[in-house]
Structures are given as C-alpha cells and as structure tokens.
Design goal:
Shape: globular
CATH superfamily: paralog of FGE (formylglycine-generating enzyme)
Number of helices: 5
Number of domains: 1
Largest sheet: 5 strands, antiparallel
Strand order of the largest sheet: 1-2-5-14-8
CATH architecture: Alpha-Beta Complex
Number of strands: 14
Structural class: alpha+beta
Radius of gyration: 21 Å
Order of helices and strands: HEEEEEHEEHHEHEEEEEE
C-alpha cells in the first residue's frame, strides 16, 4: 500500500513538473486570455444544421438548411473586438461612437452632462480588409508569435455554429423575439449607438453579443449554400462581397437571428460593422 502511495505521489509530482515546463497539453484550455487582454473561448468540433427552416420567422431564401461538420476545435473571441484593443494593435481608433457620440445628454436640452469612456465599445467603421489586417498584426505581436497563435476571422460556418451553441432555434436562447433584449442591443433597445461589450447575457458557450451590437465580418466570400452535407466549408473561392453576421444596434430582431446572413464589399466601412477574432493554434487537437 505504501509503495502504491509513493508511486502515485511521484506520478503527480512528475505531471506537475512537466506542466510547469510547458509541454504540449493533452487537452486545450477552455478559455485563454492573450497578450492584449482578449478572452477567447474554446469551441468544440461538431455537426449542426446551418441555415433556417422556411417556417422560421424572418427566414430568407439564402438560408437553405444543410448539414455542416466542423472537424476541429477552434477558439473564438468571447467579445467583439473593442476600440481599445484595436488601437493597441493598429495604433488608431476609427470608431464613430466615441467622445460626444456616446456621452450622456440632458433629455430636454441635449447638452452633454457626462463623458463616457468608449474604450470597451466594439470598434466599428472597419472594413473586412481592416479586420484582416488587425488579425495579421495581432498574430505578429512577439508574445503571440511565441505561443504560435494565428488569428483570423471565423468562417461563416464557424460563426453560426458558435452563435447557436447547440441550439436549433432562431436565436441561441429560443425562438422568442420578446427575449432578445436580454441578449442583444438592437433597434428596440440600442438607442441608436453601440454599447460596451459583454453587458447582455452570453449564449450557452460563453459568447457575448453574438446577436446585435455590431455586425461581424466573416472570412468567406458570399455565395449560395451547398445542397448537401459538407465539412469545414470556407465559402466560394472568389466573389464580389464578403459575409457579415449577427445584426447590430440599428436593425430589427429578425436580422439578429443565428441564421441571418448578408454581404458587402470588403472595403466597405460603416458605423455598424465590427468583428471578433478566431484562433487557429497548434495546441488544438484534430
């Protein structure tokens, strides 16, 4: 019995030493925080129905349901990229909603009565090209390169899979539009501006603002969905428009659905367009 206890103690000690030395982990961490304070959540691989059934309220012709399998785990930002994070990486903040645009005002006179710090609002007025540049520059930061982290925009399939978080309903929480205000900033409660990330309820996988606040660019060119089942889709090889998802502070509930998809020129900028990052890492097992 004593020898068994000794062996167990040695095993635990060796495992602790190996862990502190930093070998490749058997399992990836469920959450990581990178060198600029971005929190990312591990999204488990799996199969889901992408798109919407015709009976779903707001369902569009370009949302044909089809089976998608994602064969690898990946990380996704728990929050939309904020103004302060964008500025840390690219040295500028292009956002419209800062300063006087987010200040508290007197309801009658409209005068500014309190300044508001917008650093934790999602960055907006960024194009798809700007978002890709951010991912590249973030990946090139010394601490990120040292860990082998390569940031990118999520594919459209990755985005919807993560948004749904295992759900099959119009929204990640249910089909009920009346409950959307608890999870999203949209036309009914957005007050015509962005809001700090993470103030609403997260989905079941710990992701915030997947519905509303700002639209989020995806990596794909826009195209029609395939008719059959696919694995790890990345969209068409070429196109004219890039996909964005999730709705925004300006749009009605139907545009915030998990399946809703739209597109724009990759150079287009607007005060309702932002993004969140995905992460491919050598730590993530196949």
């Amino acid at each position: 019995m004593q020898s068994r206890l000794m062996l167990g103690t040695v095993t635990v000690f060796l495992a602790t030493c190996m862990s502190s030395a930093g070998p490749v982990m058997a399992q990836s961490e469920k959450e990581i925080t990178n060198s600029i304070g971005m929190k990312l959540v591990l999204i488990p691989k799996g199969t889901f129905q992408m798109g919407s059934p015709p009976r779903e309220n707001g369902s569009d012709h370009n949302e044909r349901q089809h089976e998608v399998t994602l064969t690898r785990d990946y990380y996704l930002g728990a929050f939309e990229v904020t103004q302060s994070q964008y500025e840390k990486v690219l040295g500028k903040n292009p956002s419209y909603f800062q300063g006087d645009q987010v200040a508290e005002r007197h309801p009658q006179t409209g005068r500014v009565i309190k300044e508001v710090d917008s650093s934790n609002h999602p960055v907006e007025q960024v194009s798809w090209e700007d978002a890709v540049e951010f991912c590249k520059k973030l990946s090139d930061l010394p601490q990120e390169k040292a860990t082998g982290r390569v940031y990118r925009l999520p594919t459209e399939a990755e985005w919807e899979y993560a948004c749904r978080a295992g759900s099959k309903s119009a929204y990640s929480f249910s089909n009920e539009q009346d409950s959307l205000a608890a999870y999203a900033w949209f036309s009914e409660n957005g007050d015509r501006k962005t809001h700090p990330v993470g103030q609403k309820k997260p989905n079941a996988w710990g992701l915030y603002d997947m519905h509303g606040n700002v639209w989020e660019w995806c990596s794909d060119w826009y195209g029609e969905y395939p008719k059959g089942a696919v694995s790890d889709p990345v969209g068409p090889r070429e196109g004219s428009y890039r996909v964005f998802r999730g709705g925004s502070w300006l749009y009605v509930a139907a545009f915030c659905r998990s399946a809703y998809r739209y597109r724009f020129d990759p150079s287009y900028r607007s005060l309702g367009y932002g993004f969140r990052v995905a992460l491919s890492s050598p730590d993530i097992p196949k």
